[in-house]
Structures are given as structure tokens and as C-alpha cells.
Amino acid sequence: MTAHNPNPTDDSRHDSSAARQLSELQQQVAALTQEVERTSARGEIENAFARYQYLHCAFRDEEIITSLWVRPGTVGISAQYTNAGVYTTWESVMEYHRNRPNPAGKLLVHYLTSPLIEVAADGQTAKGTWIVSGIECGISDPAVAAQAPQSFFEAGAVNGKKAWTHWIMCRYAIDFLNQDGKWRIWHFRCVEICRAPFGRNWIEFAAQMQANASTHRFHNQLAFFGEDGKPVFMPPVDGPPKSTAYSYQTDRSSEIEPPLPEPFRTFSETFEY
Q1: Given a cut of 70, is residue 8 above it in pLDDT?
Q2: Which residue among 126, 129, 211, 256 has the highest number of C-beta atoms inside a 10 angstrom radius?
């Protein structure tokens, strides 16, 4: 004989409460899972850009091309290094990395600070900014050094060659794209904060560049010093700069450009570096 429930509404209330608790638990698990994934992504992005700097300072650019940039054909790829303009094709972006030499006597040491990273809620893109401080130096044949402003070099000679030894600080701003479960560089922006030869200060050096148009132009067009210290200039740009940002100048106030990343759900809701 089946037992009679004198109050059938009790069962329905219990079922409704259990269903509500289950739904709340499912929502909590989903939110925690998303938070864990975003936290993990942040660590992966930090590692990716740290790897970029290690490889960049070791002149291992082919590894940067194959392991850290988005795949060929990715829509919207871009890189901007100066106010001269922006590179907007995979080929022109990679031109910066192609055949970048590692001459004897050249040294780059860049260390990363102040990472500020925002991963999109949908987990498909991320934005990050870093401040980079370090040193850059090399030696140049005197005849080659004559092709560059002499203010870039130290006084005197080392084993018959001119030496350039610079303090440098930069800010990087990068958009990352999640491709096949790996975070890759999609939009790249580098802004020099200040620079000075080792034996001088950046205020004096900035003032000299401001006063000398040819030195300022040389500095803005320079990509790197190559074999024997030969100046190598940036390739022609594909278009105008997305925005302008300036190295330290004595008559200009400091600014944050491009802007810092803010939390966002999906890339269409944010701006592009």
C-alpha cells in the first residue's frame, strides 16, 4: 500500500530549492572556471613576452617569428615602432625581424617591469603593457661610425673602434590573440621613454636631439646598428601611425600613450594597440 503524503507541496518546494541550489552551484563553478582560465592565461602571456625579450636580446628573431607572432594570413596584424607609421601586413611586420645581425661586441639587456595585463572575458584576446629598462651597446668601425651622429658615441676609441653605450627605457603595449590554445602577438607597439649615452644624462641628450633636426631624424628612423656598427634603418611603413607618442623632451609633459588596458569582455569592446 502506497504511503499517503498529507502535504504534496512540501516535495515540490524541496525539488524547487534543490534545483535552485544546483543552478547556483553550476554558475559558481562556471565563474571559478573562467577565473582560473583567465589567471592561467595571464601567466602564459607574461611568459610569452618574457620569451620575446630573451630571444630579442639574443638576436634569435626566427624563433620570434615562428613561435610568438600570429600565423601568416591573420587578419589585422600590425606593429608600430615610431611615429613614422605602422606596418599592417604579416610580411612587412616580419621584415623588422629578418636578417637582424648579431655582430661581435654588441649587447642588449632588456628587463621587464610593471606588467599590466587584461584578458578578455571570452578568453580569445588580451591586452598588456610593460615598462622595459636596460642597456644597449656595440662597437663601430670609425668609417662606419662617421655615418651616424657623433653624439651617439662615447669619446675616444676602444681597440681602434668607436663605442656606443646607451641607457634605454621603453614602454611596450601589445594585443595578444589566442590561436590554437597559444597566446600570440597580434598588435605590437613600442614607445621609447628615454635614452642617453652612458656618459651623459637623458635630459642633456634629449635637448641636443631637439636642437638638431638631422640627429632627431636619424634616431627616429634607426632600426639597429648592424655589422661593424653600420646603421640600419626601418623599412617603409604601410600607413600613418595609429597614434603618436614621444620620447622624453624638455618642453613636453609626460603622458601615457597608448592608453592602459581596462577590463573588457570581447575585443570589439576595446581599442587596438
Answers
A1: no
A2: 126
Query: Region 76-80: what's the mean pLDDT?
Result: 98
Q: How many structural domains comprise the chain?
A: 1
Coil, strand or helix: which one is 65? helix
Give the CA distances from residue 269 to residues 70, 122, 242, 264, in Å, rounded to whole numbers and listed in that order: 21, 12, 18, 7
**Does the pLDDT at position 32 exceed 70?**
no
Euclidean distance between CA atoms 153 and 240, whole angstroms: 31
Q: DSSP states of 139-206 as a string?
A: EE-HHHHTTS-GGGS-SS-BTTBEEEEEEEEEEEEEEEEEETTEEEEEEEEEEEEEEEETTS-HHHHH
Using the predicted structure, report yes or no on whether residue 265 has a pLDDT greater than 60. Answer: yes
Asked if residue 9 has pLDDT above 80, the reply is no
Q: Return the SS3 of 114.
A: strand
Q: Is residue 1 part of a domain?
A: no
In which domain, by residue range, is 238 found?
Answer: 10-269
The pTM score is: 0.87
Structural domain contains residue 182: yes
The sheet carrying 162-179 orders its strands as: 85-87, 78-82, 182-197, 162-179, 125-140, 107-119
Helix (H, G, I), strand (E, B) or coil at 87: strand
Q: Has residue 117 been placed in a domain? A: yes
Mean pLDDT over each residue of the chain, to the nearest integer? 92
The H or E element spanning position 45 is helix 9-57
- Looking at the domain assignment, is residue 250 inside a domain? yes
Give me Rg for the CA atoms of the chain: 26
d(CA 157, CA 163): 7
